[in-house]
Amino acid sequence: MNTQTPQGEVRQILEMNAFKPGDTKAEAVERRLANLGAASVLFYRQPIEMVAAQGAWMIARDGTRYLDFYNNVPSVGHSHPRVVEAVATQIGKLNTNTRYIVAIVDEYLEALKSHLPAALSNVVMTCSGSEANDLAIRVARAATGGTGIIVTETAYHGNTALVTETSPSALKRGSLPDHVIAVPPPSAGHFGNDIAGGFRASIEAAIAEFGRRGIRPAALLADSIFSSDGIFADPAGFLRPAVEAMRAAGGLFIADEVQPGFARTGEAFWGFARHGVTPDLVTMGKPMGNGFPMAGMAAKPEHLASFCTDVGYFNTFGGNPVAAAAGLAVLDVIREQGLQQNALETGRLLLDGLRDIAASEPRVAEVRGAGLFIGVDLAEEETGRPDADLTVRVIDAMRDQGVLIGAAGRYGATLKVRPPLCLNQAEAEQFLSAFRAAIRS
Amino acid sequence: MNTQTPQGEVRQILEMNAFKPGDTKAEAVERRLANLGAASVLFYRQPIEMVAAQGAWMIARDGTRYLDFYNNVPSVGHSHPRVVEAVATQIGKLNTNTRYIVAIVDEYLEALKSHLPAALSNVVMTCSGSEANDLAIRVARAATGGTGIIVTETAYHGNTALVTETSPSALKRGSLPDHVIAVPPPSAGHFGNDIAGGFRASIEAAIAEFGRRGIRPAALLADSIFSSDGIFADPAGFLRPAVEAMRAAGGLFIADEVQPGFARTGEAFWGFARHGVTPDLVTMGKPMGNGFPMAGMAAKPEHLASFCTDVGYFNTFGGNPVAAAAGLAVLDVIREQGLQQNALETGRLLLDGLRDIAASEPRVAEVRGAGLFIGVDLAEEETGRPDADLTVRVIDAMRDQGVLIGAAGRYGATLKVRPPLCLNQAEAEQFLSAFRAAIRS
Known about the structure:
The structure is a homodimer.
Chain A: H1 9-15, H2 27-36, E1 50-54, E2 57-60, E3 65-68, H3 81-91, H4 103-113, E4 122-126, H5 129-144, E5 148-152, H6 161-165, E6 180-183, H7 188-191, H8 195-213, E7 217-223, H9 239-248, E8 252-256, H10 271-274, E9 281-284, E10 295-299, H11 301-308, H12 321-336, H13 339-360, E11 364-370, E12 373-378, H14 388-400, E13 403-404, E14 406-408, E15 414-417, H15 425-440
Parallel strand pairs in A: 3-13, 5-6, 5-7, 7-8, 8-9
Antiparallel strand pairs in A: 1-2, 2-3, 4-10, 9-10, 11-12, 12-15, 14-15
Helix pairs in contact in A: 3-12, 4-12, 5-11, 8-9, 13-15, 14-15
């Protein structure tokens, strides 16, 4: 049972693929550091100043156009005109809270619910995925009477006090509290050919460990694409036995869809749906408003009610009509422009292209993913060991070729391939060329 | 030492001045309840459906125009054209995160910092006041090595797990954890003529109680207008001895400016400034973007750095360029339209008018406040006891006369007079007439 603090996405971003004191400081960087201080998380040793963005592209002050394979918030495309128009129109008309009835809010909630399992008929709107996960953990605790939470070892679920406790990748020192146990992610590296069975066994071991600690389990909290663990998607279905094990012990399954949700994985609208499971709680965020700050948690009415007997919950900005307008536009664009299908097809093109490269490049150790969420493991040629230094060099070389990309995984040696859902074939091929050149250079 | 769970703002809103099962249900209300479930917090027994809002006014579906004396988010006025234009322009150009440099973000941070004490030179942008307070508590703990938090007995600081622990008014049952102690608010009701001395003594008693519990204090966390406690503003300066007592015990002072900040109290831009204290941490939210979801925490660089050695902190939506544009527009409008001065002058007009009414209406027990944040205690005529039932009847009668208003305070018997900062004299007089009629009816 791994309860240590592992290396993780945030750690890598903060400490590896990032600006560090001592790097060349342009005036704009000095200014930023003076404003944000130690909480500054600028990317790249020479950070980029951005001035505009459209579709899959971001434009820097020096005129460089970057193909965005990193940012998963502007999921239907940067500055999408439908979202822009929806926000501009609604914010000029009415922006208030859920203490009043506003038709567009319920229109949005119903549109969103049409994508969700019918049992999860209550949606609490929040501002961030962190708030959604913070709430979901408390709902799970109120509903089960337990407190124990199982997460994966490099998980990231957000930035509140409670959610940071369940985010091993956010810890720089110290260890997880007793009521949080981190298990290995569902990878072939850990479980060989029986990922589903191995993952279930590690959940059962964590439950047994909770038993020894005198703690009742409350929930398995998992990002169903295991983004910061390094992206683990296959075989579809591997989540089901783990969820069954958790339920057998009286706990719930919280699907953190902040990363895989909203059509990114191509085969389904949600990451959990690929695995044939119905979560007890679903949290969502990032791409939900294509950049308008909004997030939410879907729950069964009885679970939400059991939480609400203990405390009142109100979220001032959550469920405001402007967020509803942005969210509706996002759902409309995904449907009308067939972005789920595009994620599937363009994702397959990327997967095939990356596997072609892997076939001739021994340092590309493995390529895996679903839809437009792909992980590429980079390794030392001789030993096959994860190679974080190579990953940093590739990220920098990609930037020099006009492609934005980041890393994930316990060793920071997995490239996170995560373009907007509107990516076209030419852009996918441009990425593949840039990656081929970067890995060879 | 009061460590019980008192009645509070949220409790009142949820259980008193709100839609309840069994009330007449229109179709729109049924729809909302089906969507939000137990987390629904609709106002009024017959909730209002809103369709538009402008300046100090909200417009319902049936055409009724309501003068908004409740909502403190659209502080420079509902649908303010400057904010609308700023958001519409920036969201069409670039909406990204703080991993890149974007000039407008630093422009905003510098404009905001020009209003803050110079020592608090780092600002972490978040999505909500809850996230800001959640972070501030952790920063205070990291900086002091303590864990104890002192709050007032009907305080509300937000909705995350950690912040709910410090919000006695959000608890429906159960009690505060050992590391949170609630003290009486700085009111004449508790401390007679020596509010400053009495409040300091209760902070010292809480510190002593922490000592008996073996807990080191981390912070006094206070909304400097004591909004949900019932609005306590005078005498200006009463916070200083309490803050000194906390600092003498090694703790910090977190000024929660989510309610009083951004010029509302008239005499100063922040509530704490009226009291002549410089906080160690300042949190802000609600009116910051006039409804665009944004919030933040200002800290001394060394305090933020001590927190960031333990965990990484990144907020996906926090500090996005659209929030910066909205925030800049808010600061511009406050300055250009002289809204702080207007809060002072129109606030005085309201205070005088309400005191006139109080002079002839024994059920109006006390009127107090600063700028456009005024509390009006309603009481039984014979006994002088706080009268929550009367307060509900007045709130309903005001609604019938086209004025939105809410309640606060331990007994839910304090009207919370909190109009937008752009309120003009005619609107103030309209409110006074409506209140006079409501209290007499």
